[in-house]
Amino acid sequence: MTDRLTVTLLLTDKQDLGRSLIATREESAEAAPGEVLLRIDRLALTTNNITYAAFGDAMGYWGFFPSGRPGWGHMPAWGFADVVSSGVAGIDVGERFYGYYPIASHIRMQAERVTGRGFYDGSAHRKALTSAYNQYGRCSEDPVHAEALESYQALIRPLFITSFMLADFLEDNGFFGAQRLLISSASSKTAYGTAFCLSEGEGKGVERLGLTSARNERFVRGLGCYDAVARYDDVEKLDKAVPTLYVDFSGDEALRGRIHHHLGAALVYDCYAGSAANTEFLKAQDLPGPAPQFYFAPVQIKKRNADWGPAVVNARFNAAQQSFIARISDRSRPWLTVVEALGFEAAQGVIAALNANGGDPREGHVVLLG
β-pairing, 180-183 with 207-212? Predict the structure, then answer.
């Protein structure tokens, strides 16, 4: 008789992203030929997960891990898992992989394209989805993996690839002639990751001005990666003579309108890089100045893979990520404090809080499920 396994899952109400339920199902405890069965151990939860859920149907995020329940989705998250059963040559029980997982105790995958670096999940329902999310990295072969820093890596890596490639995109385009970058939601990890990369790169001659709320102003000023910081209330006080590039991490349409109307011809480019405040697609707005341009990291990754080769892209990203994690985890003056919690009920609480208020920018939440 085949051993059985109880799989625990956290499902999200698609109409109310702060509402979830814990469910279970019974499965075989063994992997069939061509399969790997992994026990999910450690997952990062940030506002990025809320974005995945908010755009779940429109951009296919719900499709990675179908829930099988109408109206309920399986929210994806980044983290680590261990192989508990393998029917695939080249993948052994006990190996640890970093990647994109459901909030669940276990996941069964069809492992394909197995190399020393890892594998891809070739499950039929994932074939048409974005390839980057289907790749799983073998921790033993990852030059930047460190067990003691796994929580930071789970929190930072999926966000920092956006930051790193966005900074490169802006530098690659000469900042579109701007002398000032106006960066909204400056307290968000992806925003200050971008500012960090620019402070280390070729953008030192371009002012990095972080826009933030009164609540987060002190935190943003303390980071040190922005040349200047302003509150949202101060937009109309900005010097209109400085050619400015707007880097939008908020998705706030009212804020976008104020910036366009105030800066007018001084606004040289509007880069929509993400959404911390708005979980809807941008609506068309009749605004003076350049139309918002959506930034999508895989496009710049593809360009740099062609320019430099994947090995160089990976090496540069890994070096930048190591530098960034070293900075944010510096015990003498940390930018980010990891808050670890245990179990599915804890995950429910974190997700509800992130959905309600975005959380404290000083904290990074990790749930341990193993």
Answer: parallel
Runs of H (alpha helix) within the chain: 47-54, 150-172, 189-200, 217-223, 253-263, 297-308, 310-328, 344-357
Residues 108 and 68 in one domain: yes
State the Cα–Cα distance between residues 297 and 219, nearest whole angstrom.
27
Domain that includes residue 224, residue range: 160-300
Q: Is 235 exposed, middle or buried (0-12, 13-18, 19+ CB in 10 A)?
A: middle
Task: State pLDDT tens for residues 257-293.
Answer: 999 999 999 999 999 986 544 445 455 567 888 999 9
Is residue 157 within 8 Å of 321, Cβ to Cβ? yes
Q: Does residue 52 carry a pLDDT above 90?
A: no
Do 95 and 190 belong together in one domain?
no
Please give the tally of structural domains in the chain.
2
Q: CA 262 to CA 265: how far, in whole Å?
A: 9
Residue 225 has pLDDT above 90, yes or no: yes
Does residue 310 lie in a domain region? no
Yes or no: say if 220 and 212 are a contact pair by the CB < 8 Å rule.
Answer: yes
How far apart CA 235 and CA 336 sit, in angstroms, is: 27
